Here is the input.
Amino acid sequence: MGTLLIYILKSAVCLAVFYLFYKLLMSRETFHRFNRFSLLGLMIICSIIPFAKISMDTPDETVQVEISMDESLMMPVMVDENIATEASDISTMEYITTFAAIIYITGILFFAVKEILQFIKVLNITHKGKEEDISLYVKDNTGKIKLIVTDEKISPFSWMNHIVISRTDLEENGREILCHEMAHITNHHSIDLILADICILLQWFNPASWLIKSELQNVHEFEADETVIRNGIDAKNYQLLLIKKAVGSRLYSIANSFNHSKLKKRITMMMKKKSSPWARAKYLYVLPLAAVAVAAFAHPEISKLSDEISSVKVNDFSAITKNHEVENTYSKPNGLILVKGTVVDDATGKAIRGASILERGTTNGTISDENGDFTLRTTENSVIIISFIGKQTYTFIASEMEIKGLKNNPIKLKDDVQNMDEIVVVGYEPAEQPKKEEKVQHKAGNEEEVFIVVEQMPEFPGGMSECLKYIARNIKYPTLAQEAKIEGRVIVRFVVGIDGYTSNFEILHSVCPALDAEAIRVLAQMPKWKPGMQRGVAVPVKYTVPVTFKLEKQNTPQTQTIKSNPVMPGNVSFNKSLENVLIVIDEKVASQQEFSALKPQNIERIEVIKEDSKAQEIFRKYGVFDKKEGVIMIKTKVWNDEPTVTLSADKMDSKTAKIIKDKLINDYKK
Here is the structure.
C-alpha cells in the first residue's frame, strides 16, 4: 500500500503542475480539439511519469590519509532488549501510511458510490422516457443515435449514443439542442468524461483532477457550440437560447449537459478570433516540465523519503548467530510476524551475545541476548540481516524462515576475517610521543535507553577519518605486553552519550589486562563527539571497535600503523620492562613465563606499584635486592573477598584510572 500511495502522490503533484501551465498558456486558445486531447494527454502523462526512473547517484567521497584504513569497522552496536520502541513496534511512518491508506480508500469508496448512483439515475430516466426517431427533427449521419423524450422538466443531456430531452424543449428549440447534443455524441465526449471520472476517483483529494474535468467539459461545450454554428444556426439566436437555458438545473455530472458550461465563457469563445497556428508551439511546455518532474522525483532526498514510505516493511540486520544456527518461529499478529531465533558461532557452537538483528532500510532492530536469542516484529517480506564483528553477514526474508529450515534450526555465523576492519598496533618498544593531557568527562547513562541506529548518528569532530587518525596517533603497545610476547585482538564496546562523551566501556574480547586497558584509555580520552539525534532529541548510541596488537619479529622500535580495519581501543601505558619489574602472583615471586601463561579470566586483582617507599618495602619483604623499577602484584580468583584494583602510571589522570579500574574489576571478576 505504501508503494501505491507514493505513486498516487507523485501523479497528483505532476497533474497539479501540468494543469497550472495549461491554464496559463493554453486555456484561452481556440484550438478546442487540440486542447481536448491535451487535457486527456496530461492525465495519461501524469500517470506514467512516476514510473520513470533515473539514477542520480553521487560518487562517494574518499578521504586520503597517511595511513590506510577502512571506516566501515566503526560500526554501531545493536541495542539491548529494552532499546528504543522502534526496534520492536511498528514504526511511526507505518502508522502514518496505514492511516493515510484508510482515508484514501474511504474517499475512493465514497466517490465510487456517488458515481454509481448518478449512473443509475441516468439509466432510470432513459428507461422511463419514450424513444422517438431523431431523423424527424435533424439529420443523423450515423444512424445509431437514440432520442429519448420525457415529460419531466429536465435540462437536455447526452450520454454515449443517447440524447435525453424534455417534450417542451423538443417542441420549442429542438433543432438547436439536438444539433448541439449530437456533436457531443459524434465526438465521443462521454468517453472523455469516463476517463476524467476515473482520474477523480483515484485522486479525489487533488483539486487539479476536479479542475481538469471542469476544463474538459468546457472544451466539450466550445467544440459542440462550434459545430452548431457551422451547421447554419444563427449565432445570436443560439446565444439567446443559451441565456434562456442557463437558469436550468444540471443533475447528471457524468453526462454532457446542454447548459453545463459558464455562459460568459461560451459566448466569448464563439465570438473570439481564431488563434494563430503558431500558438500550438506553446504545447511544447510539456517536454521540459516532464523532464523536471522525473529529475525531481529522482532527487536523493525525495527518493529516500518515497522509498521509506513505499517500503513499509521490516528488513532485519541480524548479527552473527550461534554457529549460524537460529531457532526461528513466527506468528502473524495484525499482518506482522514475530521473528524469533538464536544466534550461534559456527566454529564453537556457542551463543553470540550482541549480534545485531536489523530490518534493512529501517531503524527497526534488536540484538541477541546472552543466550544468543532475539525477537523482532516485522512484516512477511522484510529482509532480515544478522551481523556481528568478525563474522559473515547472514540475510534472509522473514517469510522464508520455514522454507530455508530456519524455524527449527539455529542460525550459524561463520568467521569473516577479511571483513573485519581493525586497528593493528605493531611494535617492540613504546614510541615516545608527546601526549596532551585531556579532560575526560563521562556520563554513566546506565538507566538511559541506548540506541543502535538513529536518524542522525554520532559524529566525531572532523568525521570518522579523523577519529581513526586520533586512535592511530594515541594508541601504544604496552611494553609490559611486548616483553611478555602477548598479542591479539581486543574488541571494545562503548556508548557515545547525550553529552557527546564516551562511556560504559565493555571488553567483548579480552587479550590481557594491559592491552585491554590501553584500548579503553584511548577511547576514554577521546574528545567530545556530536551526540546522536533521534526525532530531534540527543540519545546515547553504542559503537563496537576491534584493535589488534601484533608483535613483529624484527627488533625495531614500536610503530603504529592502521592495517585494514579501525577499532576503538582504550589503554594504560606501562613504560616498564618486565626484566626490571618484580612480579608477584599469589604472594609468590613469579617469572616472566609464569606471568605470560596467566589467563586474564583467572585474575582477580592486579596492583601496579611504582618505584617508591611502598615498592622498596615489598622488595625487602621478598628478598629482592637487585635494582627494580616497580612491582606488579597479582591475585588469582578466589571468590572469598571483593577484588580491588589499584592502578598507578605516569601521565594518567584520575578519571581515566577510575574507568580502567572499574572495567578490570567488572570484566575480570566474571
Remarks:
- The mean pLDDT is 72.
